[in-house]
Each structure stands twice: as structure tokens, then as C-alpha cells.
Amino acid sequence: MFTLTIKRTALFAALHILVPLVLATSESQVSLSSLSSNSYNQPHLSSTFDNGYDDVDFDEPRLVRFIVEDWHGDAVMLEEPVWVTERVKLDSKRTGDGYIDITEHPNYNPSRYSAAPSPTHVYHPPNSTIVPQILPLLSTQEQRSNLEIFTSFHTRYYKSKTGHASSRWLYQRVLNYTSEYATDALREAVGIELVLYEHKGFKQESVIIRLIPRRSLNSSESVERLHEITIIGAHCDSINNENPFYRSPGADDDGSGTITILEAYRAILQNGYVPLSPLEFHFYAAEEGGLLGSLDISDAYVKAGKDVRGMIEFDMTAWVAAGRPEEIGVVMNGADLALSKYTKLLIEKYLDIPWIETRYPGRAASDYMAWTMAGYQSSHVLEGAWEGVNNGNHHQVTDSIDVSPEFSFEHIMRFTRLAVAFAVELSSY
Ligand SMILES: [Zn+2]
Fold first, then answer.
1. Distance, CA 75 to ligand 1 centroid (Å)?
2. Hey, which of 102, 360, 411, 422 has its CA 20 to 30 A from 382?
3. Does the pLDDT at position 112 exceed 70?
4. Ligand 1: distance of its center to the CA of 260 in Å?
5. Is the domain 11-19+113-426 a CATH 3.90.230.10 member?
6. Ligand 1 centre and the CA of 329: distance in Å?
7. What's the 31 CA to ligand 1 centre distance in angstroms?
8. How far, in Å, from the CA of 322 to the mean position of ligand 1?
């Protein structure tokens, strides 16, 4: 689906064309007869706002693996694969039963579920002289104006027209920043790839930014095999649990994470920072559909033999619940122990609020788990301890910037500092 070629031009945009999706194999016909019964009879599951594509089908069979409700320790546990309809998926999401959707990866077999210390990347104590130069470039005003536009799309649901348009807007924003801030000197030193990453089965794209030191490009060997990649991630879709075509601003989930890493990228570019190993920013499509975007991408990295030094995900970075201390939640379940520990060191060095360990309860899931299950080291930071997370509004029309003073651009800025620190410290060797 996706072949990476390193172009020697300073900047290029790659639009990857897909073969048409074919569901009518004998295997899927057999599966159709064993679909779970349809308990989801909401009448409006259609293009209420003329916001759908013709191919949106809520009776479509999907292969999912639910997350086991009682995790053992900090390992991600999955139930056996089961075929359900898209309707059942939506219904399950509404009741909090999380899953990953492996329809495009039917033989998906995670190589790693937990924080078990199998990968062995080395994380040096944070000591960058460049991070302190970049932090003053960060702009809350820039973030606010980006989030106002990003939340003005009716929904960023991955099967909707506005969800597709929102990803195109994000891509264009990244393109504009790159044109504006990447100097000739930087382009001499770093190859910059901007990728609009297409997925099978829905039109919303993921957006990937790759900064590749040119000293690697001069090698005759594959650059991916030469260097360990640092990945900064967030998801760019949103959803309304009542009906995916209803209004869903997704300001906190995960507009906040999106503008967190977008601003980190902008400031790093503005500084002219030259990484010594590959540095990437990933904006995943369709996280709310069962990690569809991150599963596709992490699986492609495994198949391409890429080595990832560390991945961090920013999913919900805006909320400081009334009466609770302002903290950075470090999610421990499904994350890598060594990288989570390193993330805490970065918080201690570069932020003036503390971290707190927290855990997803029950069946919650997010994109970092796709990277863990692909065998890579990942960590995940959250707006606070789980008990104080913005669960009253997320996946609803009320997940907006102005719903409450608890929505804090200052809090987002702290995560943005962390994103810069993680990106620069890990790509400086
Ligand atoms: Zn989210």
C-alpha cells in the first residue's frame, strides 16, 4: 500500500493511491453469516447532515478484538477476534467497550503486549542545550487559532466528508509551516517529507512528517535501517458517540493533542534544529474507529523493518479538573516501562508541574498501544490522573474550547514543551 522512497528534494508531498477495497471474498461472505446480532437500532445512523460518502455502510462486517476488561498488571490483553457490524462497533464504543479493528490485518498477532523489557533502546539523561532555545518560540496564540479552525469542522469523524476535509486542512497547515520556516540551510541538512497517508476503507488520511538527516541520505543503505526513529503522535479524528455524523468538535479529544504536536513541529522548524537521527510527527486518522490509522502505520513499519527508538502519544492535553492539582498523567498500562520512566525525567527537567502515574481502566485504548503491540517502545501522556480526565464531555457535542474554564491552553502548552523536549532529546544522538 505504501512504499517509502527517500527523495533528495528538500520537500515533497506524496499522495499514495490505493487499490479499491474488495470485501466480497468468500471468506468475508462466510463471516457475514456469523455476524453478531444487531442490537443497535438507532434510526439516524446515516448521513443526516449530508456529510457521508456513498460508501458508508453501517452493516459492513468488521473484524475486531475487544480489549480484555481486567488487565493483568500493565499488559494490554485482547480477546479473540470476532466479526461484528459497524453498528455494533459504535454501540460498543458508546458503552465503553474498547477494541482494535483489525479488518485490514486479519492475521494481526501482537508481538508484545506489555511493559516487559524486551526492546533495549538506550535513553540518555536529558541534557540538551537546544531545547531551552526552542521553548520560548512556542505560541499559545498560534495553538488557539489552529484549534479554533480545527474544531470548526462539523465533525472529524473518519468516514465523513468534513473528517476528510479536516485532515486535508491539517496537511495544508503542515505544508505552509514547512514552506514558511524551513530555511535553505535546514533543507541542506535535513530531508523533509510530508505524507498524506491513505487508508483502506475510509477517506480520512493520516498525516506524517519526516525529518531525515541528510548524512543518512548519503548512505547507500536504507536510511530506516541505519537509524532509530523518534515518533511524536496524536490522533486527528473525532467522534460523537450518539451518532457519528452529529456535531463533534473534539477540542480536547484529540484536537488538543493535535495542536500540541503541531506547534512543537512549528517551533522546532523555526529554530532550525537539525536532528542526528530521524524525527517524525504522526497525526493518526480514525483512532476512534479502533486505532485504524495507527495500526496501519505501525504494521507498515514492522513490515519495512524500521527501528523506532521511542514513540510518545498525546491524546487529551487540555483539561485541568476543578479542585484537582495540575499534573501530567503518565499512562502506565500498555506502555513501555523504560520510556515512561524517561518521559518522567523530561517532565522533571523541563516542566514546572509534576507527573502522576495513571492507568486506563477497563477497556480504554489509544494509538500508543498499536506501537507497543507492534513491538516498539511507546509512552502516553494524558491531561491528568484518570479520575480528573474530561470524560464528561469527550465524544460529545460539548467537547469544545469554551465549555468550561477547565479547558486550559496553559495546560496544553506544558504538553507542548514536553513534545519539544521528547523530540529533540531523543533525536540528538
Ligand atoms: Zn482520543
1. 20
2. 102
3. no
4. 13
5. no
6. 14
7. 30
8. 21
Ligand 1 centre to CA of 61 (Å) is 24
Query: pLDDT, tens digit, for every residue of 8-44?
Result: 222 333 333 222 222 222 222 222 223 333 333 443 4
Tens-digit pLDDT profile for residues 157-180: 999 999 999 999 999 999 999 999
CA of 316 to the centre of ligand 1 (A): 6
List Cα–Cα distances, 105 to 76, 102, 108, 200, 331, in angstroms. 18, 5, 5, 11, 26
Task: Provide the pLDDT for residue 117.
Answer: 52
pLDDT in tens, 277-308: 999 999 999 999 999 999 999 999 999 889 99
Q: How far does the centroid of ligand 1 lie from the alpha carbon of residue 234, in Å? A: 8
Residue 18 CA to ligand 1 center (angstroms) comes to: 27
- Mean pLDDT for the stretch of residues 70-81: 76
Measured CA to CA, the distance from residue 158 to residue 14 in angstroms comes to: 20
- The residues, ordered by sequence, that sit 6+ positions from 359 with a Cβ below 8 Å of its Cβ are 74, 331, 332, 333, 386
How many A from CA of 313 to the centre of ligand 1?
10
Q: What's at 277, amino acid-wise?
A: S
